[in-house]
Design goal:
By secondary structure, this protein is α+β, with helices and mostly antiparallel strands. It has one domain. 52% of the residues lie in helices and 12% in strands. Strands 1-3-2 form a three-stranded mixed sheet. Helix 3 packs across helix 5 and helix 4 (105-116) crosses helix 5 (126-145). The longest helix is centred in the C-terminal third of the chain and has 20 residues, at 126-145.
Length: 193
């Protein structure tokens, strides 16, 4: 539901690039979280980990209501385009169902093993679901950051991929996916999950 609202808001925007902080504000306004914080971690090696999110609850007083916070940590050593994709992907994870979330060190290790290794192994389990959701979130982030209305403008312009990538502030390899003639069908499929 939250993802659908973000997609509708993205389609209504005329200016590119779409701002991730504005999407975060929409999730806060919709009640998904009370606060979303983006933090660049200079120590994060993007060849190992590009980004991560951590959800937690704080209370401002003994009897106060809980404040639900998401911390999105990303590597500033990535290009701006990849930083945007990573932050948006982690933002999408704030809407994950409980079964798709890691809650223990063992679950985090299992997820990392699945993400770095083959998804199709004989070891079935919750880590498979989490890893599949993580990969899916990347394409959902792409659908958010490069809405169909912007795709139509890009195709009509006849511009080179590099110029379009600069316009939407996304990696060229991902822009090529959106410009592919099959993208609208692929987009519908990935957004139906």
């Amino acid at each position: 539901m939250f993802l659908k609202n973000l997609l509708e808001a993205a389609e209504a925007q005329d200016a590119m690039p779409l701002e991730i902080e504005e999407m975060a504000e929409k999730l806060i306004t919709a009640g998904c979280q009370d606060e979303i914080v983006f933090f660049p971690d200079e120590q994060m090696d993007p060849s190992i980990l590009r980004g991560v999110h951590y959800r937690y609850t704080i209370r401002n007083g003994v009897y106060s209501d809980p404040n639900f916070v998401t911390l999105i940590v990303y590597s500033p050593r990535l290009s701006i385009g990849w930083q945007r994709i990573v932050c948006c992907k982690e933002l999408i994870h704030t809407c994950d169902d409980p079964v798709e979330r890691t809650n223990t060190p063992d679950e985090v290790t299992g997820l990392i093993d699945k993400l770095l290794g083959p998804l199709s192994t004989e070891n079935f389990g919750v880590a498979d679901i989490m890893a599949a959701k993580d990969k899916l979130a990347l394409y959902q982030a792409l659908a958010l950051l490069f809405p169909l209305s912007a795709r139509e403008q890009a195709l009509a312009s006849g511009s080179q991929v590099s110029k379009i990538a600069d316009w939407v502030k996304l990696p060229e390899s991902l822009v090529e996916i959106v410009l592919d003639e099959e993208w609208p069908e692929i987009r519908e499929a990935i957004l139906s999950f």
